[in-house]
Queue: 2 jobs
Job 1
Amino acid sequence: MRRCISCRVVQDRLKLLRFTNDFELGLMINKGIGRSAYVCKTKKCSKDSKFKKNLQKALKLTIDPKFYEIIDMEIQNYK
Ligand SMILES: [Zn+2]
């Protein structure tokens, strides 16, 4: 069980998108080894105004704005 960084609800990890600050490769989605953060697979949570800030804080990482375009593509099929 993991906690969503937007709504703070604890959920089964299958319902969450995982972001990992991989120690070699940097930020990855659903892959990698290292510090991780989770967000619900919903537009509500992934489009939340606090999401980007919370993600950077959780991963101790500055995220390239281009990466959010990848996240947007990843979540566009979610409800
Ligand atoms: Zn959530």
Note: Residues 4, 6-7, 9, 39-40, 45 surround zinc ion (CB under 6 Å).
Job 2
Amino acid sequence: MDGLNWWGDEPAGEAQTDTDRDVPVVALGTALQRTIKTPISCTGVGVHSGRPATLTLHPAAPDTGLIFRRVDLDAETDRDIPVTVERVVDGRLCTTLANDAGARVSTVEHLMAALAALGIDNLVMDIDGPEIPIMDGSAAPFLFLLECAGQTVQPAPRRALRVLKPVHINDGPVSASLMPAERGLSISFDIDFKARAIGRQSCRFSLSESVFRRHLARARTFGLREEVERMHAAGLGLGGSLENAVVVDDDVILNEDGLRYEEEFVRHKALDAIGDLYMSGRPLIGRYHGVRSSHAHNNILMRALLADPTAWRLETVSEDQLGQAAPDAFQARHEALAPTRACA
Ligand SMILES: [Zn+2]
């Protein structure tokens, strides 16, 4: 399959020789922007509405950025929802973006995580309703979709968001921080749940496509049985099921097939954070640490970073500065509070 060529078929320095076609000159080794080779679609249900939705990804020109397009809405000028930190309007259960006209799209985070991991900069993403399909509750189906579409390197430099100063937010037992780093994005995440099947879990890693693919992409979203029941009673989470979430009842995993990774819960939280941090549409150079941090907290953290112009800088970077860790540069730990039982 042609999509297996993850890093595009042009060497990174190719654009430098391309001056006769009015293409900007880019220094050898500079990280270049990427889009996909061909349009591609998937269909699934929205986790909150329970309604089917089709997502179609289209290649886009350099410097377009990532744009959701609500193709079910009539007014053409009001359909586009560019991905930016400021357009995140709701991060309670999932990440929702809205434009000035009020058009919304929610549950974007797992798709965003896959885009961050692959370093896709430019896409127009058609969606025919207010929710991105939940698929299996992980980022793996989106990773597969992007793999099938293939990637193209574009003759324009990527610009990374470099963290220059520590930024920290606190909310009771929850905290999240960003620290400067020389290269790449490293992530550490800790969770601590009363449910004994989850317990205390942590993971730390340097983000790369291979780490994401091997250690994170398949981690599914999860919920506690009582929360799921409460949501269903309130008419929310209507598309949620054991097909697209891990559901836990104290020390019992209700999914018949159990977990995909021993620390699937914290891996999923880290996956969510990767998507949340990519809402700027730029690769981030820094160190992130989250303790029980939600989508909403991650968005507040990104807003706090961007609100201080001395805390960050946009810069043209080399592939090396974006960091490509070895595939095994991943650690996870799980202290279960009781032996986990599978669903009877
Ligand atoms: Zn998630």
Note: DSSP finds seven helices and 22 strands in the chain.
